[in-house]
Design brief:
Structural class: alpha+beta
Distance between the termini: 41 Å
Largest sheet: 5 strands, mixed
Length: 352
Amino acid sequence: MIAGPPDRLSPAERDHLVRAHLDARRRRGPSARARIGSRQFSLLPVAAEAAPGGGPLSEWLLAVEGDVTEWTPKRQQLAENLARLAGAERGRRDESRRLRSRLADEVFALLQRDAPPEELRRALDASLAMASGGDFPEAWVVVSADSVGLPDGAVRAALVEALTGVDDRTLIGGGGSGAMLLLPQPDDGVTVADYLRELLGPLEAGLGPEGRLTLGASAPAASAGGLRGALEEARHARRIAASRVGRICVSGPEELASHVLLLAAVPDEVRRAYRSRLLDQVIGYDLEHQADLVRTLEAFLRYDGSWTRCAAALHVHVNTLRYRIGRIEELTGRDLSRLEDRVDFYLALELS
């Protein structure tokens, strides 16, 4: 929000308008209309000559209550003039961001070449000196981001827009399809991963048919000397996010002590072959006989092989459950009473 009464629109309502605007832009429409309850809004794109690349994900928009297509030409012109004023403000802010962007790139260049902590601390101090209230935070979190199906620079531009005003100490660097972030650790108990999921959710409407964002967040680093390790953590976490299904996927440091880290490190072709060897016959049987073996297997593993609890969860008789598990064992040559075989099936289902 750069102008207007902020209490007139809740965060959820603003998200609704953003999604409507991005959906219209994805369909190449110049403007959109959206309704919130009984209120009609017109959504006009804000152009700025100095705006960085990135397309719709980093655009500004002007939300006007009412349907501008029904307005008089004079009033329509007033809305267009207001959009131009917002564009001028966008250009002014972009100019002030340029030096900060260069400083961010310098910090990440030092991180990537494993510069001494003292040199890194000096670069961070120089960046913080430009930020209002630039005290050195108690801890930093590093975030690695990447994209598929988006133009170069889109991720960085979108993150700059999304995070502006949250904490002026935040640094955003990188180029090409990805970006890197250095964020002060939130002090309200919310993890960076959860915060990014909520913040970036509305952007899904503008990703297009092939667009995808994946992000990984590190554990907090209490000093400049710990940032190099945090960067590696963030990259590993991003690989976990990339292995998942979804348009916007975010993984946090808590997943680095899980089996998903090992799965993310395995090449795609090996993952597909592993899953195929264990599950293809079971999936094929389900398709041919309209059976429910895969869901039964998932439930059996989820309830730790307990016949009674699994049968109750599936709403079937225990004898029916025993028959299905027996059929899975016949098809695969595995024994679900053995821990090793249960682990193999669990990992194969995680790769689904």
